[in-house]
Amino acid sequence: MKDMISTIGLRTSTLEIYQCVLFRFLLMDEEVRQLHVLPKLQFADQILIALMGAVHSMGIVVLLRRIAVLVVRMVVAGTFAVSYTWSPGQNSCSTTCDVASSLPICGNANRQDLIDKWRGMGKKVILSFGGAGMGGSWSGDQNNCWDYCFGREEELSTSLVNIVGSQQLDGIDIDYEYCYDVAGKQSGRCSQRTSNYSDSNAQAFLDTLTSKLRVKLNTLQSNNGYSRGRYELTHAPMDSDLVSDSKYFQILKNRHQDLDFIMPQFYNGVTKAVVDGIGGSGSGALSAA
Questions:
Q1: CATH second-level architecture of 2-276?
Q2: Which residue ranges does the record assign to the GH18 domain (predicted)?
Q3: Alpha-helical runs (H) found in 135-187
């Protein structure tokens, strides 16, 4: 798998601490202690990532000693004008792919003081847009909010970059877990898709949004003098989307100069790569083990 990722020409995160794991660490003293023995980063191009949900309270200072990048989710439920409102069973999508003009950080509240504190500790804080609530490619998922963002890359990229500028963030992550190739490798998936969906629309969205975000982040940096390197632009594809013949893989490969690193979702979720192999054909060459 490392060889496949290296062909894209991007860095990958050494370890991702996802929300369910992160807050389990916080609640269990023994696991908090174990954080202090996390393996040290061995190479200059490895990054330790923490992914945090805005609906939770934050008490994560103990985590920050080895964490290089904090990823704060953009898509939240409630009264915020985001791309969906949470609803049991199926989220209510914004049909114009609207996102909030400010980012909830903690307890569904805008906590600029926390952003400033984390950045003052030398950490980068990046905005994540997407996630499972927007729609997933796994069996039984009912959400299709991505469909309403297809063709709206100009407006969406502007909204996301405006948030980065106004809240002094360090970049943007795209967390796309939805379909993009139902005519091919994803045949039979995403039955919840609307008439807005087509493979070509989904693939164009991923490609165009990535391009527009890089251009607009570069323009923002030229205008505001951002001095922490260039603004980070990342994707967080599921492991099964990174096989070499995946359409998503090819988009990432072609856009590698626009991207800074990727955060593959290796946590035995939708696919159990250690047991089944990333391609679902059994443990072996594509196993994450």
A1: Alpha-Beta Barrel (3.20)
A2: 68-289
A3: 153-166
